[in-house]
Amino acid sequence: SLHREINTLPLPPHIKSSLVKAGFVKTTDLDGMKPIALSQETGLTDEQALEVIKAIAPPTNASLKGASALELLQKIQNPIILFNADIDEMLGGGIPIGKMTEFCGVPGIGKTQIGMQAAVDVSMPADFDGADGECIYIDTEGSFVVERAVEIAEGMVRHLTAMTENRSAEEQKIAASITTDYILNSIHYYRVHDYVEQLALGNVLPSLLRDFPRVRLIVVDSVTFHFRHDFEDMSLRTRLLNSFAQNLMSIAESHNLAVVLMNQMTTKVGQGESILVPALGDSWGHNCTNRVILYWKDGARYAHLYKSPTKKQNTVPYFITCDDV
Amino acid sequence: RLGGDDAPFVPPNIVDLLKQIRIRTVEQLIYCNPRIVSQQIGIPFEELEEIIAAVEQQIAPVPSNAADFLTNLLTNTDITSSGFLSLDKLLGGGVFSGELIELIGGPAAGKTQICLSSALSFALEGKTVVFIDTANSFSSERLIQLLEGKFPNLNGTDLDAKIEEILPRIRCFKTFDIFRLMQILEHISQETSTTPTSEDHLFFENLSLVIVDSIATLLSSIIGKSKVGNNIGHNLMITLARWMKTLASERGLSFMMTNYVVNEGSRAGLGDSWASVCNVQVFLSYHVTPFSYRVGTIHKSQHMPLVPKIIFTIEEAGFRDCQTEEQMLQ
Fold first, then answer.
1. Distances in Å between the alpha carbon of B293 and those of B56, B102, B108, B285?
2. Residue B227 predicted with pLDDT over 60
3. With an 8 Å Cβ cutoff, are A246 and B221 in contact?
4. What percent of chain B has pLDDT over 70?
5. Mean pLDDT of all residues belonging to chain B
6. 3-state class of B147 per DSSP?
7. If you count residue pairs, one on A and one on B, with CB atoms under 8 Å apart, how many are there?
8. Do β-strands B293-300 and B309-315 pair in parallel, antiparallel, or remain unpaired?
9. Closest residue of B to A7, CA-based?
10. Per-residue DSSP letters for B93-119?
11. Cα separation, B113 vs B103, whole angstroms
């Protein structure tokens, strides 16, 4: 009983107009049509007619199977631990796999530091509750400094050694295999220079993930930078950002990895006072599953969990040291 | 299309004659000029008029008697709780079957929480729920927290048994594009019809609620002012709306959808065409002073709300009404 106009099918416009001219209005009009008969009626080539038949074919039941809430519960994976007890606790154990987490803050608050920390932490072996994976780091601002990443990696190596001091030889051997080189080799770094490159990279991600199947984390630092200026058409910006986000979410879900996005802040002028809010507008706020706002107060840094389906709102202080966040 | 299986009947020889002068669809037949066309295809004018009248008779809708309509409504309407009594009052009793409810608000306003709470509430009554997740916001852990909130005295194995009984009634479909959403709705239509094809028809027999969280992120990437102007995005949105209304009315399903706000929180997203689709619109807003609370108001409803607005907080165990606290602090 549900019918659909030919116009709404994902087919090229010239094919659709041929169909409409031949009197096909709804998809049900095409029921039982063979490709040869269809090409005779419409003047389409055999390949085009075949494309049409495929577009209206019902999907196989296998691809439509949803998962029950119970099955999803059993599928929950260990989050990516940041080795900051307060922030990990606030997020429910760490950065969740399969979801998008957004960190917003003013310049200098530590967004890139958190991004680099996560990129290093993702290579922690499974024996120590780590994600045992690699990271794709997308840098849009040029703020990734390799020397700092080395510092954080060395910090993690020191942490591992201290952790396994009194443990079994087996565990000490595993810890020893995680060298600074190993950690840095598991970070795949991409630099984008404008929004077109950023969107293109988003589209190319599935093939990158085929080349690097161990990737468990994608960091975009920052998602905002190339979209803030030079966009006269705001609705175009919204559409591009939303489809970028949808793409990343789909990848997070299908490849079982975590996505971390950094966002900047912008000033909203209200009546009498102006406040800082996350950039990119009201419509962007809905794209991420979790949103953390980083801010200064009395000379100290705080992280505030603003949005999460599972954890309640919370604020924790954090510090940036030479070893870690 | 003329001559198609579900088109009104027209004698085949007439269909062929009409095709020769480029009249191929029912619409073209009805709007043609019968005098000119009858001459072009060589049949008497009266015969063509009779054929057109018969076609119109077949496609015109049949009126129903208002008394029958009322009886039908009173016997077949089902009202289910959303899991939060104050919200039920705002909705004029609860979630009504056959209705499309839209939850509108900014980030962290509580839209997903209301969806999860409603899903649990339906499941506790033995009904099944489809949760279409476009923003990776579905959370089984949160469902369990809410379940524990409803049964605080259950522990250990009893709680596990309850979880195993209730959670399978809620099924999550992840989708990130509109075509897949349409496939899911077609699947639901097929499985809830009188001749289901798959083995798990038991799930679909009891299906009462379909949640789409969020419909806005799915549609916003395809609608919008396009210079090309072929408006396929807009057509898709309208087709989707028509499908949901059809499923709601024919199968008695309730739909619950989340949308965001634009223009500093004053308007719902997705524009004016979408605004007329849902029967019920609830606006949610999030406030931080003097304490962290949320406000819900009704903007559109087919029932009389029992309260004008609700003020509540979201806690681990569920929702808590705090209207009196807010008044005291004012």
1. 57, 20, 11, 9
2. no
3. yes
4. 93
5. 86
6. helix
7. 178
8. antiparallel
9. B232
10. SSEETT-EEEEEESTTSSHHHHHHHHH
11. 11
